[in-house]
Description:
By secondary structure, the protein is an alpha/beta fold. It has helices at about 1-10, 10-15, 50-60, 80-90, 105-110, 165-185, 190-195; strands spanning about 30, 35-45, 65-80, 95-100, 115-120, 135, 140, 145-150, 155-160. The chain has 2 domains: about 1-160, Glucose Oxidase, domain 1 (3-Layer(bba) Sandwich), CATH 3.50.30.40; about 165-195. The protein is about 35% helix and about 30% strand. The strands form 2 sheets. A 7-stranded mixed sheet has the order 1-5-4-3-2-8-9. Helix 2 packs across helix 6 (about 165-185).
Amino acid sequence: MTAGLLSLGTATLYEASKLDCILPHRIRPAWPGAAVAGVALTVAALPGDNLALHLALEQARPGDVLVVDGRAAAFGYWGEVLAEAALARGVLGLVIDGGVRDVDQLRDLPFPTFSTHIAIRGTVKNGTGPIGAPLPFDTVTVHRGDTIVADADGIVALPAAELDRITAAAVARADAETEYLRRIRAGESTMDIYGFGRP
Length: 199
């Protein structure tokens, strides 16, 4: 399932979903080529404090993607050690509104990582917010069990109850676009293919 979602891509999944499901554009791949699809485990961290991420790994299940509210703070909440610990638990990747470090090591593992900042400033381990609770990101709320798909274009959070519908619609959209490309290469214009009216 996850490989198929990655091949469809976030842009197609978003368009097919007809939902407001895009996570903030400020969260970008920490290294070129990062891509991941898995099940959301939500984590609320305190500013500059990464104890919540250590605790979340104890609760994580294989196939999870950690989705973390780090308050968009420029701290190194995550690095090589936590990535190795995550891989040992079967965690597939990290999406964090906050900072990460050890980017070369994250790439080499490889551990797909999406973050707001690359930051080396250290964190404390004093407290935590909720783990597994609904987590708002601007206009989108991510729930435990949502499907997260992240690639170079962006990040979408797809509600579990809607996943089959969205996937089917995305496959149909991808097939249609393949036909559009064939027609373009054969010399047709996009105006004619899409049936746009000319002023």
